[in-house]
Design a protein that fits this description.
The protein has 510 residues and is α/β, with parallel strands linked by helices. The protein contains 21 helices and 16 strands. It folds into 4 domains: 99 residues, Glutaredoxin (3-Layer(aba) Sandwich), CATH 3.40.30.10; 210 residues, NADH-ubiquinone oxidoreductase 51kDa subunit (Rossmann fold, 3-Layer(aba) Sandwich); 91 residues, Ubiquitin-like (UB roll); 84 residues, Up-down Bundle (de novo design (two linked rop proteins)), CATH 1.20.1440. β3 and β4 form a beta hairpin.
Amino acid sequence: MSLRLYLPQDTTASAMGADDAAASVIREATAKGLTIDLVRNGSRGLFWLEPLLEMETAEGRIGFGPVKSADIPGLLDALKAKPSQHPLYLGLIEEIPYFSKQQRLTFARAGIGDPLCLDNYRTLGGFKGLERALPLSPQAIVDEVKASGLRGRGGAAFPTGIKWQTVLDTPAGQKYIVCNADEGDSGTFADRLLMESDPYQLIEGMIIAGLGVGADRGYIYLRSEYPKARAILNNAIARAEEAGYLGESILGSGRTFTLAVRMGAEAYICGEETSLLDSLEGKRGMVRVKPPLPAIEGLFGKPTVVNNVLSFAAVSTVLAEGAQHYQEYGMCRSRGTLTVQLAGNIRRGGLVELAFGMTLREAVEEFGGGSFSGRPIKAIQVGGPLGAYLPASQWDTPLDYESFAAIGAMLGHGGVVVFDDSVDMAEQARFAMAFCAHESCGKCTPCRIGAVRGVEVIDKVLVNDHREENLILLRELCDTMEYGSLCAMGGMTPFPVRSALDYYPEDFKR
């Protein structure tokens, strides 16, 4: 009997025991005389079910999870007889509600097969966008991206096509494409998942960007804490070069694009695009004064496109399916899909890709299943460590850029961190200031000094040292940091602090 099984090899699945389970599958199959074709795929993002073992059947792939090494002997016996009788049986993967209710564009291929197999990528529609882009003029490519309404998925949500147009219009003998893969926000993992599950999509998007703005060289600035992603990306780049998708004369077109991975500096501030560029140049990561914008004077002083992983990945979809297809998802000025990453005190943590417009409450309750502890949820932080803490009264806000901006919050990279009612929001406000003090590049005074003073002021509030006066001082300090800081590091640290003060004032009274 021959079985084709799938078991993820990405960072999260491995951390949950997938490698041990894979070794157990091989060992037990040999002992039982079974012929097993074990494919180490990427995760589908259902992290609450990892390690997720899948088996190919005539009806589709069925799943079992979360599996442990000790489950494998009995599981293999069940696979030969009645798979549905096994207690870890999940049914058809495509019919699991958490998965089936999503609208996957960027992550449509994630978890389908071996992430490094070029044939698998092409079979699933990969490089269709690149093939369509090659005969187009640079302006036509940029126009397609502008027409799609795609906005940067890294946090600022700046229109991608407008940024590309600026680079295209700036004359220079050398231009660059830089991918910000320094994914440092709390509760985020979408970039890592895509790089480990579908690396060719990122590569394809960056090649298209190079064709669109006239750049022949690209760099992926990768978070140093992602060693598995580094190995996969380097392997994928080598295979793409060998197959003619990178290097001289891409697919015989006469167009050139080279790509390399560079490791990050283990600093949160290097997620800010100008600090990233300094780091990429071999300097200490320090925020640059703007203007000039990186699109005009970026890497080594040359016009540079800086987008994050999900932005470049979305470009491949836009060129493959057309701008109008992408426009059909989302609402108002938030077009396409948002990748929500559910983390923190959540029952069903993982990745959810949806068209913009679902409410935060629906994402956390319908997909996340509420808190992991079973206690009532008290606060939800969206958008990383600089995002506001949102109370229950704001959970019905639609997940789109304008709706969140209207309540003084941000979507950022799509990270959603849940806290139950045991959390102390005064301590969370203190953490925001302490985080800024630790991660600040130190270039501007409001951020460098303000965050340190912020921690001191909150500490005084918590021991009832002139509480009311210090609360006033804390708000004034937040105003100074927001309007005086050089970048979002200091400028947005007040968001979580103010939200904690506004919505959870009782936690500041001890």
